[in-house]
Amino acid sequence: MAQLSHRQRKGAGSASARRLNPDGTYVHPLGANRSGVIAPWFFVTIPILWILIFSLLPFLNTIRLSFTDSTLLRPGKFIGFQNFVDMFHDPHFITAMTNSSLYVVCVVPFMIILPLILAALVADRTRIMGFFRTSFYIPVIMSSVVVGLIWTNLLDSKGLVNGMFRALHWITKPIPFLTDRWLLLFSAMTITIWTGLGYYMIIYLTTIANIDPVLYEAAQIDGAGAVRQFIHVTLPGCTWTMILISLLSSMSAFRVFGEIYMLTNGSGGVGGADITMTMLIKNEGTGINARTGYAGALGLVMFFVLGALILFEWFLESRSSDDE
Amino acid sequence: MMSKHITVGKVTKYVVLILLFLFLACPLLWQISLAFKGPKDDMYAVPPYFWPRDPTVDNFSGVFKRLPIVGYALNTLVVAAINILGNVVSGTTAGYAIALLKFKGKRIVIGILFLSMLIPGETVMITQFLIIRSLNLQNNLIGVALPGIVSAMNILLFVNAFRAIPRDLIEAAEMDGASVWQRFTMICAPQVKGTMALVAIFSFMGSWNDFLWPLIVLTDDSHYTLTLGMSRLQGTFVSDPRLVAAGTVIALVPILIFFFVFQRYIFHGLEVGGVKE
Question: Structural domains in chain A?
Answer without folding.
Answer: 83-323 (1.10.3720.10)
